[in-house]
Automatic annotation (TrEMBL):
Name by which UniProt lists this protein: oxoglutarate dehydrogenase (succinyl-transferring)
Family the entry assigns: Belongs to the alpha-ketoglutarate dehydrogenase family.
Ranges where the record places region Disordered: 914-936
Listed cofactors: thiamine diphosphate
Lineage: Bacteria, Pseudomonadati, Bacteroidota, Sphingobacteriia, Sphingobacteriales
Organism: Olivibacter domesticus (Pseudosphingobacterium domesticum)
BP-aspect Gene Ontology terms: tricarboxylic acid cycle
GO molecular function, one term: oxoglutarate dehydrogenase (succinyl-transferring) activity
Record function comment: E1 component of the 2-oxoglutarate dehydrogenase (OGDH) complex which catalyzes the decarboxylation of 2-oxoglutarate, the first step in the conversion of 2-oxoglutarate to succinyl-CoA and CO(2).
Keyword Lyase appears in the UniProt entry: no
Amino acid sequence: MDRLSYLSNADSGYIDSLYKAYKEDPNSVDFGWQKFFEGFEFGEQTDGGGKPVEGGDVSEHSLKEINVLNMIHGYRDRGHLFTKTNPVRERRPYYPGKELETFGLSEADMDTVFNAGVEVGLGPAKLRDIRQLIEETYCQAIGAEFTYIRHPEKIKWLLEHMEGTRNKPDFPIEKKKRILQKLNEAVVFENFLGTKFLGQKRFSLEGAETVIPALDSVIEKGSDLGVQEFVIGMAHRGRLNVLANIMGKTYKDIFSEFEGKTYANAGEPDFGGDVKYHLGFSTDIKTHTGKDVHLSLCPNPSHLETVDPVVEGLVRSKIDMKYDGDKSKIAPILIHGDAAIAGQGIVYEVAQMSKLDGYSTGGTIHLVINNQIGFTTNFKDARSSTYCTDLAKVTLSPVFHVNGDDVEALVFAINMAVEYRQRYHTDVYIDILCYRRYGHNEADEPKFTQPKLYKAIASHPNPREIYNKKLMEQGSVDANLAKEMEKDFKALLQQRLDESKEVENLSEANPMFSGAWKGLRPAKYEDIFKPANTAVSKDEFIKIAKLITTLPKDKKFFSKTAKLFDARNKMISEDSYDWAMGELMAYGTLLEEGSRVRISGQDVERGTFSHRHAVITLEDSEEEYIPLRAINNGDVKFDIYNSLLSEYGILGFEYGYALANPQCLTIWEAQFGDFFNGAQIIVDQYLSSAETKWKRSNGLVMLLPHGYEGQGPEHSSGRIERFLEACAENNIQVANCTTPASFFHLLRRQMHREFRKPLIVFTPKSLLRHPKVVSKLADFTNGQFQEIIDDTYVKTNDVKRVLFCTGKVYYDLLQKQQDDKRKDVAIIRVEQLYPTPTDKIRALRNKYKNATKFFWVQEEPENMGAWPHICRKYRKTSVELDVISRKESSSTATGYSKQHNTQQLSLVSRAFADDSAGTETKKQVKKTTKEAAKVD
């Protein structure tokens, strides 16, 4: 069928392939296409009226059949550019348009019957009827983008649902009344707040009130399709309306917050609270069809879209733990702003997670409240793409652009989106073209920057008025129904407002320690340093060690892999366990006890430094073997995933995962600790502050490789100082372990307490294979995590100089101490930097009563590392400390190995130099210090 080469669009190849299949076997294509090709072949030999054409040349009618097909596919592909979706602006023109001439047709063809009508389900039909169908389907209140989807079944499903209904809703009267009711609640609620709380920020939904009946319909439709739980993430605009009219948060509580009332437990020292339009909420509701549905709205900061990965992680955690992997029973809903979805890179990171094994959630329903403006920035200055939702094309997700004034069209589109999500478990986007009635907040004046737009908005009726008028014209509702709804609802709101004024304090509506968190509790100060029972029995330890170091005989492994596991197995008989074994044994013993373990990050399966090898690939295939899954026959899940190249998105996801299930040890590892700052927003807005803002605990573990080995400024520092400056009120734990056993007990401690706190661990690089960084069996089977490790080499009364340090530098100091046999210098390791063990530090100060010098020694520059925190904290311990470090710097480390080595020698030499040192020692210190100063 080479004549199809006349088609100028991509669909020509598709039609050509169908025709070839038809020629080989007519039954291999749909019945409609069979009839079309029959007509086409007949038309090639006739003039369309049955008269033969001499020589078998292609008739003019046959060519026009092709043009009609081209028109149909043109509407499907580009019809969204010509929709009536903007309620307050004229759409910009696009060329070529949708005129008949664009497709090689004219008005003279309108009453001609074309067999191409079978493609849209009409059978042979007049061009007039064909065009009317596709015009009504693709160019009215709903515009659809979907032809880029590379899945014929999905395309067919969308075509049938849209063209079969012409994208026109046909709701029963009760459904229309429900829509009007929810629209009434949305409009009246905003008006009520605006009149009763003048001047207060509320980030009104006005201009986009149709979002409320749309969300209501999502829940109703979703529950009918098997969804038992929805998790919602959204920014501040419209949040109060969603809380009140979707989530069921009481109007009384919301009004009390406007009155400035606090929660009953606000007097607790660790509770700072947050503004009302950042708060989360969860509730159980019953739909109109009698289904029970759980709804959660995640708390979020003002950092737009930051909540997105948190929602996805939370949903995935529930899929794994609560729904046994069934992604159809829970669905995430992300509500975006148009400027944010186009401008925030985190949205792209989250989109790229959507189909990955370790992060997929069965498809996300994305709603965009498209105000056509971001704060004061016009859409033409906010993106380069045609639509704010063009990101959807990356994951081949359909997009529905809907006029925000047409509430029935929006409900229809969103119902179709939910059905699509449930069927294909992929993302779907609904772009709601609306407007923002006021400025960025109610005190802002938008006419400063958009006078023309806001002149149009000022006279534009709200969606309830538009819908009520439509229903009255249809005769669907009584003219007084909307008025009665408004009157009754205002009376209810006034009653709740009056009640709120009598309330002294608010009660906790969503207690943290319920559901999955039942049995846990908030941490008190006295709990922080209380030892946890993390030791394991000798028999249990050895049993697990043998299990995870013995490879199955029936599988062929790479020779280096087999050698590595043989070496690990020998650690058992040699009673010497390295860092990797200490870590893996922590996971193994927790799995044996019934705790789930999840690890993700860039290259975590092998480990950036090729130390972990938690996942092994067979030599002659892509088959993978995971030794830790042999424990308990894999009944307790061990999940480890190499992530996409993301820090911000993945850390947010894992935070959400840990939020939903405190019984899983959830770990994110950075490729290098330096790279965590790509996720600094998650650290600041969730990890370090969620307890005080939202009373939400979390046990997420961050592993950040850290240590100065001459690898340059991007491979040295995990920015200890940034975490420590955020430490207060025992909000997080910051550790820098020096032995495998210490790391073992630290990880196990996370699951052996009655509370959860985020844990940041600065992990080693060179120390992974350091001959002294090993632990014996007794270190694992006895004892516990020690916040401080004293020096057992020195004699207490002989010590004149005490060096406090943390992490890798200990081994540099130890080497110098041992080489010089300096029993007068004690080296004390601070394994936990925060919460700071001040009592233990004070005890050591008293122990070394003959010492005259106390130093903090660190590899990092003086303005970085732990020192800025330590010098403040140690003021409370009666320990007068000075610092030995690299000099202040704007960069974390030098990129030159010679300079690095000189600096390192200098600080180690200075650490051991004192008045009692010999002449040669003093000369060496002076020399290395001078050399360091030169290269600095």
